[in-house]
Amino acid sequence: MASNPLLVDTREPAHMTDYIIEAGAPAKDELLHEGDYSFYDADGGLVLVSRKASDLLDSIFDGHMQAEWDKIITKIGKNKRGGSAWFLLEGVWAQNGAQVSYYTAAGTKWFRMQYTHHRVQPGILEGLQISLQSAGIQMLTTASQKHTAQTLAKLYKRAQEGWPTKVTKPVPRPKLRFSTDERVRRLMGLWPELAEKESALLIGKFGSITEVLRQDDAHLLEVKGVGAKTLSNLKEILN
Question: Which InterPro entries does UniProt cross-reference here (predicted)?
Fold first, then answer.
């Protein structure tokens, strides 16, 4: 076994480790407290990957995703040589109003599942992607578990080679950043349409999540960035 294998969280599908090894990367199972996959690159940077598939929406609405990324970024920040965070979205999501379809591949065929959720707002998936990229989290998309394993093996190999690229003038990556205020993160988890900046302003003005939720529309609208659409989203959630 290599001294720096690709670690696979023991809660991931049982065959993922074998798939990764078949794809050419050393891998082993280990209970991970941050991310679903973990390894170090050629410079000692910590690489953490979070995989989401059909559990994406539940992860957003129950606040798990927010808490998970906070732990991942904190862990990387404690590593002396830094690192990178990756979000791997397995399958394809397509949104039509409150209805969302999820497609996943099995061999050469694609299968669809549909979800209808009262908290799904137009643009929520696009907003998620933009938020992650803005926070310095890199995104990868795959079609199936086997494709995920192949992608992870490729990511591992590139990391061991020093991240070679054919792009001669790469755009600087955003630095990993996330709010360190637990109240800000919890409010964002409760209120999907709320951006980090507005969440911080609301907590700064009213002091707590409880006080934010007690305010009438007029007081909430005094906070820059909070508009009628954002308030409508909050009312739908609370009702």
Answer: Restrct_endonuc-II-like
CATH code for the domain defined by 182-238: 1.10.150
Per-residue tokens: 19: 């798939």
User: pTM for this structure?
Assistant: 0.71
> What is the mean pLDDT of the segment spanning 187-199?
72
Would you list the domain boundaries of the chain? Answer: 6-88+128-160, 182-238
pLDDT tens profile 107-165? 777 777 666 665 667 777 788 888 888 888 999 999 889 999 999 999 999 999 998 87
pLDDT tens-digit map of 150-185: 999 999 999 999 988 766 565 566 666 555 566 776
Q: Are 38 and 86 in contact (CB under 8 A)?
A: no
